[in-house]
Amino acid sequence: xxxxxxxxxxxxxxxxxxxxxxxxxxxxxxxxxxxxxxxxxxxxxxxxxxxxxxxxxxxxxxxxxxxxxxxxxxxxxxxxxxxxxxxxxxxxxxxxxxxxxxxxxxxxxxxxxxxxxxxxxxxxxxxxxxxxxxxxxx
Amino acid sequence: xxxxxxxxxxxxxxxxxxxxxxxxxxxxxxxxxxxxxxxxxxxxxxxxxxxxxxxxxxxxxxxxxxxxxxxxxxxxxxxxxxxxxxxxxxxxxxxxxxxxxxxxxxxxxxxxxxxxxxxxxxxxxxxxxxxxxxxxxx
DNA sequence: GCTTGACCTGGAGTGCACTCCAGGTCTTAC
DNA sequence: GTAAGACCTGGAGTGCACTCCAGGTCAAGC
Lengths: 138, 138
Fold this sequence. Notes:
The structure is a homodimer.
Chain A: E1 4-5, H1 7-14, H2 18-26, E2 34-35, E3 41-44, H3 45-59, H4 64-75, H5 81-125
Antiparallel strand pairs in A: 1-3, 2-3
The structure holds a DNA duplex.
C-alpha cells in the first residue's frame, strides 16, 4: 500500500493539467501534497480522490471561489460538515436548474433542425429560380 | 404593425444587456438594426427573434466564434441552410453530451450529500469527545 | 431655453480560469 | 561525468465574453 503518484500521473488520473494542479495548490484548493527527497510532489490516494471530486465541482460550474471555501471548511474538519453539505445541496439545485435550462434550449434546437429539414425538403422539390423565393422563419 | 424596440426594450426582452447588444453588433453577430431620425437603434420583431435565438446558443455554450459563423451563413441566405443545419446538429449533440455529463456529476453530488447526512446522523448519536473520531470518506 | 434622461461612439478595463515561460534542480541511463 | 527528461519556482501572458467609461448628441418636459 502507500501508493503515491507523480504530478504527471495525478494529472492523467484527474484529467487536470500539471499546470492546473500547481495552480490549484497555489490558490489553496488542494493541500500541498507530500514531497519526495528531491522536492517533487507525491500525491496520495486521498489527494487523488479529492482532485477527482474537485473536477466534478468544476465541471458543474462551481466557481473556484466557492470550491475554495468548501476546501477550507473540509480542512477544518468534521465540525464543518453541516455547512459543507449545505453548499453541496445548493450547488446541486443549481446544477438541476442548469440541466433544465439546457433541456429547454435543446427543444429549441430540435425545432430549428426540423425547420431546416423541412426547408431543404421544399428546396429539393422546387427546381429552378423559384427556389430563391423560399424563405425561412426566425 | 411595424413594431420596433429601443435598445433598452430589446435588452429587456432578450435578456442581454445594452452593452452586450452593442458588442454583438460590433463583432458581427447581429446585423446593425435600423436607426431613428436621431441615430438611435430600432430593433424590429425579426431582430428580436434572432437575439432570442442567439441567447439559446449562448446559454448552451456555443462559442461566439461559431455563433458568428452561423450568423454570417444566415446572412448569405437560403443557400447556406444545409451548412447551418449541420452546425446546429453538431451543437445539439454537444449539448446532449453536456447534459449527460452534468447528470453524472449530479449522481456524485447526490452520493456526497447522502454521505453527509449519514455522517451527521452518526455525529448526533455520538455524544462527547469520541465524536471527533468520526471521519469522512474521500 | 434648459435640464434630464436615454442614447451614441471608440476604446480601455475586468474577471475568470487557466497556461506558458525562463531559468534552475534532481535523478536516471548511458 | 554527462545528457536527457521530469520536475521545480515566481511571475507574466492568454482567451473569452463581456462591462465600463468619458465625452458627446438628441428629444421631451417644465
